[in-house]
Amino acid sequence: MKEIKRLQIGKGGLSKEFIEQAKNFFKKEKAVKISILKSACRDKKQAEEIGKELVSSLGNNYIYKLVGYVLVVKKMRKVKEK
What is the pTM assigned to this prediction? Predict the structure, then answer.
């Protein structure tokens, strides 16, 4: 099984540069684990908002799951319906 690549969101938060970096990862990868550091958010609600904002910035064919303070973002084959 292939190892899942990892990224971190730090005190800079969810910036345009981070979103571009994530897009570049998804050119070769199907899934990425993103650790949200304490300096980026205070609570789970804020971490959930980061996940929603990231997936909406990436596009319609991405989903995420928040486990603790780790986002697992996956690229779907088909565009999901809204």
Answer: 0.83
Nearest to 28 by CA among 59, 3, 57, 56: 3
Query: Among all chains, which residue has been given the structure tokens 């998804």?
Result: 26
Strand partners, 5: 32
Q: Which domains does the chain have, with CATH numbers?
A: 5-75 (3.30.110.60)
Q: Which H or E run contains 33?
A: strand 31-36
pLDDT in tens, the chain (82 residues): 677 889 999 998 889 999 999 999 888 889 999 999 998 888 899 999 999 999 999 988 999 999 999 999 999 876 655 5
Torsion of CA 74, 29, 20, 15, to 10 degrees: 50
Rounded to 5°, angle at Cα 15 from 12 and 26: 120
